[in-house]
Amino acid sequence: MWCDAAALILPAGAAISGASAAYLFGARILARGAAVTVTVPPPRRLREQERLRAVHQQLPHGDVVSFGGLPVTSPARTAFDLGRQVGRRAAIVALDALLHRRLVRADRLAAYAMRRSGWPGVALFTARLAEAEPLAESPMETLLRLLITDAGLPRPAAQYDVTTADGRWLARVDLAYPDLRIAIEYDGDHHRARDTHRHDIVRERRLKGDGWLVLRFMADDVHRTPDQTAQIIAAARRRSTAQGVSAVRVSSTP
Which of 135, 125, 138 is closest to 176 using CA atoms? Predict the structure, then answer.
């Protein structure tokens, strides 16, 4: 509704952009109550209002598409803008979400950025794109992964299908260290539902029966006690290494 309203006052050549564009494309990264972001190419100007944030920046014709009758920055331009924003973690959350929905591809985004080598923040965007993970299924999974790597731990594999030595499928885990048989799971609120909780218990039992260690974390572990969470994962890695854990056959989900 607010995007429809913003479109009514956009000057020619302007478009809905940033997290607002991502939201329209189906990437749920927009904060509740956030203002609509629009990009307005110079020399045109648009005054910001309470529910409207205006960015005045170049906007080539090819960077604008029509979506539901609204002018919106293309998926590539949307990713480029969000990947250059000030907050690194928010930028990578956005890139993960857009890549996961297959709105963009990492190689094409890299090529897109190269064609805009003189633009502000290109080096920043390129560095963040290297940290992005198309298999991440939620912003909290992304934040948990970044918590791990920011603590100096190896980057875990995302959305791994775990199979036994004889090829029997056991489960798909959010994050994993396959060589150490460590599964790292983020449990959102929906995991508290009775059926989901029951499924989680059965699933975890299968993994543990095959020699996997399962570490489960919630929002507070990521937002309130990140250092402690990283320490738990680091300690688990040390124990598994000391015990000489051998890997089961694990394959990533394409």
Answer: 135
Continuous segment of H or E residues that includes residue 150: helix 139-150
Distance CA 216, CA 53 (A): 38
User: Which candidate, 203, 211, 170, places its Cα nearest to that of 185?
Assistant: 203
Taking the C-alpha atoms of residue 174 and residue 140, their distance in angstroms, rounded to an integer, is 11
Are 94 and 19 a contacting pair, CB within 8 Å?
A: yes
Question: What DSSP state is assigned to residue 229?
Answer: H
Structural tokens at position 145: 């992964």
> Domain map of the chain by residue range?
2-131, 139-252
For the chain, 254 residues long, the average pLDDT of each consecutive 10-residue run is 93 96 94 92 90 94 95 98 95 98 97 95 97 96 98 98 90 95 86 64 88 94 97 96 62 41
Residue 198: both structure tokens together = 């029951």
CA distance 251 to 162: 7
Determine the pLDDT at residue 240: 93
This model's pTM is above 0.85:
yes
Rounded to the nearest 10 degrees, how much is the dihedral formed by the CA atoms of 10, 18, 83, 27? -150
> Measured between alpha carbons, how far is residue 9 from residues 4, 46, 56, 114, 242 in Å?
10, 9, 15, 33, 64
By C-alpha distance, which of 182, 107, 218, 91 is closest to 173? Answer: 182
CATH superfamily ID and name for 139-252: VSR Endonuclease (3.40.960.10)
